[in-house]
Write a structure and sequence with these properties.
Length: 128
């Protein structure tokens, strides 16, 4: 019998996953504010005929929040004074979403472990 077929190892593994899930759930439940989107940086040329941007030294950076709304891509200009806050809020959204993905994966893993444990316990009983 390999280690992976050992119910006590499986229980340990499930316990570890539960603790990780609890940590991820708490992290999400502590998030108070978020904004959907990704902060992007942009440099650009201006319309003047004589300017350093004509020689490749572009103006910027300009910051935008890129986000999808009703399947349409949008860019919203970010005022430099709002940048740190927007970066933080967009980070919160990203972490929140990523944690949900991780929690779903952990749920599947725990369910799978329980199925395996059930199978082993039932097969042991059949041998008696
Ligand atoms: Zn220019």
């Amino acid at each position: 019998m390999t280690g992976m077929r050992d119910p006590s190892r499986m229980r340990q593994r499930a316990g570890k996953l539960q603790r990780e899930r609890y940590r991820l759930e708490n992290e999400n439940l502590r998030i108070r504010d978020m904004i959907k989107g990704t902060v992007i940086k942009h440099y650009k040329k201006c319309g003047r005929k004589v300017c350093i941007c004509r020689e490749g030294k572009l103006h910027g950076p300009y910051w935008y929040l890129s986000f999808k709304e009703a399947d349409k891509s949008n860019l919203k200009y970010i005022n430099i004074k709002d940048l740190p806050r927007i970066v933080r809020l967009a980070g919160n959204y990203k972490r929140f979403q990523s944690n949900i993905t991780k929690i779903n994966r952990i749920n599947r893993q725990i369910t799978e472990l329980m199925g395996d444990i059930r199978e082993i316990l039932l097969s042991r009983r059949g041998k008696k």
